[in-house]
């Protein structure tokens, strides 16, 4: 029980200072973003997908498995407004400990900014960036269960404002391989701040509680997925002034909402996704994120906001994933990632770490 004391305490601390799920209210907002194109293609979140892609375990440490031994994943892309994204992840299985470890780096470079006074006089330049370092571990329990934990150090440098913190993810997955049903739960980004942006003012962590389910079919080459996120709070809608009306018959606060928005409040918690397998080498993914569409789509022209899709190519030594995600009609975000099976690339050669492990979910 003692080994779970620190994660439970950090989780309690995180939930005790939570606010609504609005952008800019939390520290380390960049940790909400997907670390892999495969996850991006599935709507930006995916914790129950048993795909043979080691980068999926960045969303749920319980997805780390021995088959990912010596897999190196690399993602390097340009995000919106010239932001450069660099992610790297390495998985290693330790047979003596019966534990699979993962080591990851996530880095966002926002570029160089000009600093000026109120009169517009240039006073110099400064850079802004965010990064995190993570260590994950995963083990099996009985025959169908697997659990894992990620410990993460996050640092944010926004010109003159700096912050750092310790966070963790705690996940579990139940795999019924005979019926091809996979159910997972994960607490993400719980933790505490080591240093706040402003001394004396504490912002909440971007914590999330997720439950996901994936169903594969024996006689059909596709799977269906559903994920529920931010389950600790019912109403995660943005408080939009356009939803308010004035009622002069009321005293005091004359603002009232026009509707209850029950359906919108419900579906903002869900992401739906599907995958199609074209043989053993090609995988087509697609997803729909209702919260993203509801918050970023224009009422006059919604376009493809909230939708995403991608493809994966699985080779013996390499895995290549591409994703295209639509946040806004201004343009989609394209993401490309490469995973390298080092044990396949280098060969046996008598080196212990080149051992191959079978796919447990195949």
Written description of the protein model:
The protein has 362 residues and is mainly β. It has a single domain, classed as monomeric porin ompg (Porin). Helices cover 10% and strands 47% of the residues. The protein is built from 5 helices and 16 strands. Strand 3 (99-116) and strand 4 (122-141) form a beta hairpin.
Low-confidence stretches: 12-20, 245-251
- Name the helix and strand elements from N-terminus to C-terminus, one letter apiece: HHEEEEEEEEEEEHEEHEEEH
Straight-line N-to-C gap: 33 Å
Question: Order of strands across the biggest sheet?
Answer: 1-2-3-4-5-6-7-8-9-12-13-14-15-16
Overall radius of gyration:
22 Å
CATH superfamily: monomeric porin ompg
Q: Specify the structural class.
A: mainly beta
Going by CATH, the architecture would be Beta Barrel
How are the elements arranged and paired?
Blueprint lengths: L4 H12 L20 H5 L29 E8 L5 E11 L4 E18 L5 E20 L3 E14 L2 E16 L4 E15 L12 E9 L5 E7 L15 E3 L8 E3 L4 H6 L2 E9 L3 E8 H7 L10 E8 L3 E11 L2 E11 H5 L16
Antiparallel strand pairs: 1-2, 1-16, 2-3, 3-4, 4-5, 5-6, 6-7, 7-8, 8-9, 9-12, 10-11, 12-13, 13-14, 14-15, 15-16
């Amino acid at each position: 029980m003692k080994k779970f004391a620190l994660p439970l305490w950090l989780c309690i601390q995180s939930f005790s200072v939570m606010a609504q799920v609005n952008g800019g209210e939390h520290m380390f907002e960049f940790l909400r973003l997907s670390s892999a194109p495969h996850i991006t293609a599935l709507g930006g979140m995916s914790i129950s997908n048993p795909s043979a892609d080691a980068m999926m375990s960045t969303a749920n440490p319980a997805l780390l498995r021995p088959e990912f031994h010596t897999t190196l994943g690399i993602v390097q892309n340009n995000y919106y407004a010239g932001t450069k994204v660099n992610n790297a992840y390495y998985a290693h299985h330790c047979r003596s400990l019966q534990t699979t470890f993962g080591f990851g780096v996530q880095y966002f470079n926002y570029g160089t900014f000009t600093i000026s006074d109120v009169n517009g006089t240039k006073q110099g330049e400064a850079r802004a960036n965010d990064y995190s370092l993570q260590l994950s571990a995963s083990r099996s329990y009985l025959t169908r269960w697997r659990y894992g934990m990620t410990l993460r150090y996050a640092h944010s440098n926004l010109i003159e404002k700096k912050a750092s913190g310790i966070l963790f993810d705690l996940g579990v997955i139940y795999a019924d391989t005979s019926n091809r049903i996979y159910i997972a739960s994960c607490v993400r980004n719980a933790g505490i701040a080591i240093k706040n942006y402003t001394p004396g003012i504490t912002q909440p962590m971007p914590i999330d509680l997720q439950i996901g389910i994936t169903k594969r079919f024996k006689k059909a080459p596709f799977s269906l997925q559903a994920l529920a996120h931010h389950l600790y709070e019912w109403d995660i809608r943005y408080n939009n002034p356009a939803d308010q009306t004035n009622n002069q018959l009321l005293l005091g606060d004359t603002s009232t909402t026009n509707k209850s928005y029950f359906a919108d409040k419900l579906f903002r918690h869900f992401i739906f996704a599907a995958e199609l397998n074209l043989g053993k080498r090609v995988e087509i993914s697609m997803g729909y994120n209702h919260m993203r569409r509801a918050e970023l789509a224009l009422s006059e022209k919604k376009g493809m906001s909230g939708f995403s899709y991608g493809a994966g190519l699985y080779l013996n030594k390499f895995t290549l994933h591409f994703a295209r995600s639509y946040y806004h009609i201004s343009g989609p975000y394209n993401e490309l990632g490469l995973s390298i099976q080092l044990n396949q690339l280098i060969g046996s050669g008598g080196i212990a770490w080149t051992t191959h492990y079978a796919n447990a979910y195949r």
